[in-house]
Design a protein that fits this description.
This protein has 14 helices and 8 strands. By secondary structure, the protein is an alpha+beta fold. Strands 1-2-6-3 form a 4-stranded mixed beta sheet. Strands 4-5 form a two-stranded antiparallel sheet. The structure holds protoporphyrin IX containing FE. The site of protoporphyrin IX containing FE (HEM) has 26 residues, from helix 8 and helix 13. Its cofactor is heme.
Length: 429
């Protein structure tokens, strides 16, 4: 979502401002409409602090290329709950551990909705069951008028449409192949399991909510989209950080060799005996915080948070970055320091209480459904990679961690892959 909000390149952002000004000048009725359209709703938000919004574009261009940093700065100024506008939509941004938990856990039902954005209908061919996957979304969601005339944002939106269509076509083909070769009683993989559950087993749910055959494709697209991008982003960060800190890489490998040995590969049961490996993994999640803002939520009812009234159907941003870099929770939050999770700073075990405070899978009803699976995968991929390989940058290569904090897809690939140009060395030879 933030890919398209926050990382709109400078030229389209400028074009947007120019467009907004032109629209204001030439379409005065539009301005009138904007005022009257939002005036009722507007009342609600007057009591909530926040930056002044521009007509039509709201605060969109103020978020820049690192929106979570801007939002965290705004939180320092306006407080844990503040209001801004993106296009014509009112957004309430929630920051800080206590306030986020208050909203997502204590008032779980009130904050568990999803906004109805046009881009969500593109994902999974409009059949999506979860609403959307991480990373989807567009400025078009909050400024739908951008679709009405040629402009760079509309072009980006159409590209996004094409990518989604390609992914969906790929998955559809795989599901068709599975349907043709499916044999009752044999479950070869996840696709077979879904076919069995939905088509052979009579489906689950009732009435309108009953799962239909087309949900096989859309559910798989959801899971594929939500897991593939996040896991690969984690691994890119992991590789970059073990190269950046070779002493830590060495310590991780020593721990693996001691506990697992050289005769077999690490398995999930080993995790409990590998405290430094686990501490390192959580520090990668905390420090990089590569999902700094969750998928947008929406309020399902009129509600209240920290004394502020928030109406039904308000878009809610949850700023996970504000928790993972909060100096009230973490000593030297800007420092990559896995030892913070080791109870006594040696290798006796990890501090479970502190680990629970890393916020990257969100919390409450909408928290990531793949969290437990993801943690096993993150552990297995990273420990097997280090068990088998040494990672080092090509000689003379400077590894910069700056400026790539939040990892929007395309910047991440451009920057990190260029930076890495790594040397792999098989450890067993
Ligand atoms: C490091 C890996 C991962 C991270 C950091 C991550 C993080 C997240 C976050 C922040 C959300 C949004 C929660 C919210 O809106 O409050 C989410 C949603 C979701 N995740 Fe993950 N995720 C990861 C891996 C996975 C995996 C492996 C799967 C599937 C096997 C998965 C499936 C989903 C699904 C289906 C949703 C949408 C849930 C909903 O709309 O209710 N995720 N994830």
């Amino acid at each position: 979502f933030l890919n398209s909000f926050g990382y709109v390149p400078a030229a389209p952002t400028l074009a947007l401002i120019v467009l907004a000004v032109l629209l204001l000048v030439f379409k005065a009725p539009c301005w009138k409409h904007w005022r009257s359209d939002s005036s009722d709703h507007h009342q609600w938000f007057q009591g909530i602090p926040g930056p002044i919004a521009f007509p039509l574009i709201g605060n969109s261009f103020q978020l820049g290329s690192m929106p979570h940093l801007k939002l965290s700065r705004m939180a320092a100024k306006y407080g844990d709950v503040f209001h801004l506008k993106l296009g014509s939509r009112h957004i309430v941004v929630i920051n800080g551990e206590e306030t986020i938990r208050e909203a997502l856990v204590k008032h779980a039902a009130d904050f568990a909705g999803r906004p109805d954005f046009p881009s969500y209908h593109l994902v999974s061919n409009g059949y999506t069951h979860f609403g959307k996957t991480v990373g989807a979304g567009s400025l078009v969601d909050v400024m739908p008028w951008l679709l009405k005339f040629p402009n760079p944002i509309r072009a980006l939106f159409h590209d996004f449409e094409l990518i989604n269509r390609d992914i969906f076509t790929f998955i559809k083909k795989k599901v068709e192949e599975h349907r043709e070769t499916y044999r009752e009683g044999t479950v070869r993989d996840m696709i077979d399991a879904f076919i069995k559950l939905i088509e052979s087993g009579g489906g689950i749910g009732e009435g309108e909510t009953k799962l239909q055959p087309h949900h096989v494709e859309s559910t798989l697209t959801d899971i594929f989209g939500a897991s593939q991008d996040t896991l690969s982003t984690f691994l890119q960060w992991f590789v970059l950080l073990v190269m950046k800190y070779p002493k830590m890489q060495n310590r991780l490998q020593k721990e693996l060799d001691l506990v697992v040995g050289r005769d077999r590969l690490p398995r999930s049961g080993d995790r409990i005996n590998l405290p430094f490996t686990e501490a390192f993994m959580y520090e990668v999640l905390r420090y990089t915080c590569f999902v700094p803002i969750t998928i947008p939520h929406a309020t399902t009812t009129d509600t209240e948070l920290n004394g502020f009234d928030i109406p039904k159907d308000t878009i809610i941003f949850i700023n996970q970055w504000s928790v993972n870099r909060d100096p009230k929770i973490w000593k030297d939050p800007e420092k990559f320091w896995p030892e913070r999770f080791l109870q006594d700073q040696s290798s006796k075990g990890v501090d479970r209480e502190l680990i629970r405070r890393v916020l990257i899978f969100s919390a409450g009803r909408r928290r990531c459904v793949g969290e437990e699976l993801a943690k096993v995968q993150l552990f297995l991929f990273s420990s097997i990679l280090l068990h088998q390989l040494n990672f080092s940058p090509k000689s003379g290569e400077q590894l910069s961690l700056e400026g790539v904090y939040s990892l929007p897809d395309w910047i991440e690939k451009k920057i990190i892959l260029k930076v890495i140009s790594l040397k792999l060395l098989n450890r067993s030879t």
